[in-house]
Amino acid sequence: MAVDLPKVHEQALEHTRKYVAGVQEGKWHGPTPDEEWDVHQLVNHIVSGNFWVTPLVEGKTIDEVGSRYDGDLLGDDPVAAYQQSAKEAAAAFNAPGAMAAPCAVSYGPVPGEIYAGHRFVDVLIHGWDLAKATGQDTTLPADLVEACFEVVEPQKDLLSASGMFGGDVKVPDGADRQTKLLAELGRQA
Q1: Predicted structure pTM score
Q2: CB atoms within 10 A of CB 169
Q3: Other beta carbons less than 10 A from residue 41's beta carbon
Q4: N or C: which end of the chain has fewer CB within 10 A?
């Protein structure tokens, strides 16, 4: 893949961190575009996913990790929890050999490269969900949108069939790249 996955993943983590830091008091239990989660639950999902990266890249199985990342991981300081999880996830994907390491994810095992691509998409798109839910600027960096297309396009049918990204969303003629990406992933911009 032409995309430097550890780099774009780390950039997506940083971009989404700004959204987490921008959640105002009183918005933590508001709705999100992900109907099953409120804002707190959405951020907790991202943080949990980030924390899973290190053990999976290091070769642990889901059973070996167990329930370590279940429940509320945000505590009294969601921004600090997010920052710690992002730091750990970025370090794991930047470690030597991480892109080739077999990762025993729920749909795997898959090479670290595939897992990193999926985490990149998850962090970037859920960041957009968070921004939308909390009234923040939803503009994603154009280079990350393009990198996301490079990850998503070859797996479009697989991702669509997974049901994880919602249904078909129609976009108007002349829609920008971000709107097209979000539509491919079941989101209305």
Answers
A1: 0.93
A2: 16
A3: 15
A4: N
Can you tell me the distance from the alpha carbon of 90 to that of 6, in angstroms, rounded to the nearest whole number?
7
Report whether pLDDT(1) > 70: no
Average pLDDT in the chain:
92
Q: Which two tokens stand for residue 61?
A: 């199985």
- Over the chain, what HEC string results? CCCCHHHHHHHHHHHHHHHHHCCCCCCCCCECCCCCCEHHHHHHHHHHHHHHHHHHHCCCCHHHHCCCCCCCCCCCCHHHHHHHHHHHHHHHHHCCCCCCCEECCCCCCEEHHHHHHHHHHHHHHHHHHHHHHCCCCCCCCHHHHHHHHHHHHHHHHHHHHHCCCCCCCCCCCCCCHHHHHHHHCCCCC
Q: Which of 17-31, 61-75, 122-136, 161-175 has the lowest mean pLDDT?
A: 161-175
pLDDT band at 143 (very low <50, low <70, confident <90, very high): very high
Q: State the residue for tokens 């780390």.
A: 10
